[in-house]
Specification:
4-stranded antiparallel sheet; alpha/beta
């Protein structure tokens, strides 16, 4: 019998591994240093770039230097510069590099945290992070939750938990209540959870884009009279469109009276609860049955870091827990968490470290100060826009998002929409800031969302200068 062949070519060790890390670190540092001078977006021929990168699976390898050049010189710079200080579009992420160091450690050590017994210390660090998040929103010590890939998966798990907790096995009469400003991931969660699309009731919002309590109560009463089973109510704590915050205290009263599961979608805005202004605006959020927070938004962490908090962790277990003979024993101590029992995921990365390391390095106070700065910058931008003739503020900042448009006497709604669409293109063409648009009651609106830890007064001043210059070019007063 021939001896077994050994192939250790994947086992980089010593200087070979250290060299790879040094080369990657050098490119990362150069990239981060260049962020302030990079264009806010590079949208040149995206289809052409994608086609140029198509390739067959390689049979043999090549040195890393050329691969790093390809990534940093050709691939990474194209598209939206989501890590840059001028990215004021959608909901910025940020991507703290401290979290990248945490991911390097987590990926290199490659420990498994889905089962407590597999890595008890690592699982406890993640439990600490969840506990910190619960304290931020005012939940009691008995609350718990999970870290997820983001708001979409969090909303899905929350809806499953509520369905299992509040509805019978035949749940198709259950109805879900959302605002006309609620994120579409709730509708997607309902679809994935097995509900017909028509079971999601869209309730109109008021002039400040907050859900109408009266219209909500009327629809619940009608549904009950018609034989439906209302069970799930979504309150917004910072919408994507405008940053609007519903009256969460009033929603909590409705939910208690109507025996509904109250779910707070605070994916964008939730961590503003660290600030005094945020706590005031979120009054009542602590009464929700579940809360979604996205650390990859208002904690500035890398994309792929979300969380779901619940007042009663047993509701997550009832919706997600299953056993198998090949798994190790699960914990019976309520203080020790097997995350696979609370989540759709069995195999998953160790997300807790990318939160824990920056928090331990800097403390919550630094995050609080940064978030206060973003609230200040949004209010400053609102004031500057109000000095520009013809600018109409369509959504004032309730958190760090606002929306505006340009108007001129004699413009029809269709003309105003077309001109503001052109105005957005002119602003973004200057490439110092990148803004996005939405439709607010049929009106084309330009959004500013201030949320990057790299965005400060200097970049906002450049952005306002570009807005003024674009307006002067498009439609001089």
């Amino acid at each position: 019998m021939e001896p077994l062949r050994e192939d250790r070519s994947l086992e980089l060790q010593g200087e070979e591994l250290a060299s790879l890390i040094r080369k990657a670190t050098d490119r990362i540092l150069r990239y981060l240093a260049s962020l302030p001078s990079q264009p806010s977006a590079d949208n040149r021929d995206p289809a052409g770039l994608a086609r140029s990168l198509r390739e067959e699976m390689p049979e043999s390898g090549e040195p890393p230097d050329g691969l790093l050049d390809l990534l940093f010189d050709t691939v990474i710079p194209r598209g939206f510069n989501t890590a840059g200080p001028g990215y004021l579009a959608y909901i910025p992420g940020g991507g703290l590099p401290q979290a990248a160091v945490a991911d390097l450690i987590a990926d290199a050590t490659n420990r498994y945290v889905g089962v407590f017994a597999a890595a008890p210390g690592l699982a406890q660090i993640e439990a600490n992070v969840v506990r910190w998040f619960c304290s931020i929103v005012g939940y009691p010590d008995s609350a718990g939750g999970i870290l997820t890939t983001g708001g979409s998966l969090s909303n899905f798990s929350a809806l499953l938990a509520a369905r299992r907790d509040r509805l019978p096995e035949n749940f198709l009469k259950g109805t879900i209540y959302v605002s006309d400003q609620t994120h579409h991931s709730i509708q997607k969660a309902a679809m994935l959870a097995g509900f017909p699309e028509a079971n999601v009731r869209e309730i109109p919002s008021d002039a400040e884009f907050r859900v109408s309590i009266g219209a909500l109560e009327e629809r619940i009463a009608k549904d009950r009279a018609d034989g439906w089973a209302p069970f799930f109510l979504v309150g917004n704590a910072g919408t994507t469109n405008t940053g609007a915050v519903d009256d969460l205290g009033a929603l909590a009263k409705v939910a208690a009276r109507e025996r509904l599961w109250l779910h707070a979608d605070a994916a964008y805005g939730g961590f503003f609860a660290l600030t005094e202004r945020g706590r005031r605006r979120f009054a009542g959020i602590e009464r929700a049955d579940s809360i979604v927070l996205d650390p990859h938004k208002s904690l500035f962490l890398p994309y792929g870091t979300g969380s779901l908090l619940v007042r009663d962790p047993e509701t997550l277990k009832r919706a997600h827990a299953l056993s198998a003979e090949y798994l190790p024993p699960m914990q019976e101590d309520a203080d020790l968490t097997d995350y696979n029992l609370m989540s759709p995921e069995l195999s998953r990365d160790w997300r807790g470290l990318r939160v824990w390391l920056p928090f331990r390095m800097h403390g919550a106070g630094v995050f609080r100060t940064n978030l206060d700065e973003k609230l200040d910058l949004a209010e400053w931008a609102e004031g500057e826009l109000e000095t520009i003739p013809g600018v109409e503020i369509l959504a004032r900042p309730q958190l760090s998002t606002l929306a505006f448009r340009l108007t001129r006497p004699g413009w029809s709604e269709a003309q105003a929409n077309a001109r503001n669409e052109k105005l957005l293109d002119l602003i973004n063409a200057r490439k110092r800031v990148y803004l996005t648009a939405t439709k607010l009651r049929g009106r084309f609106a330009i959004r500013i969302c201030v949320l990057s830890f790299r965005t400060h007064r200097d970049r906002m001043e450049e952005g306002l200068a570009d807005i003024r210059a674009a307006i002067a070019e498009l439609a001089p007063p």
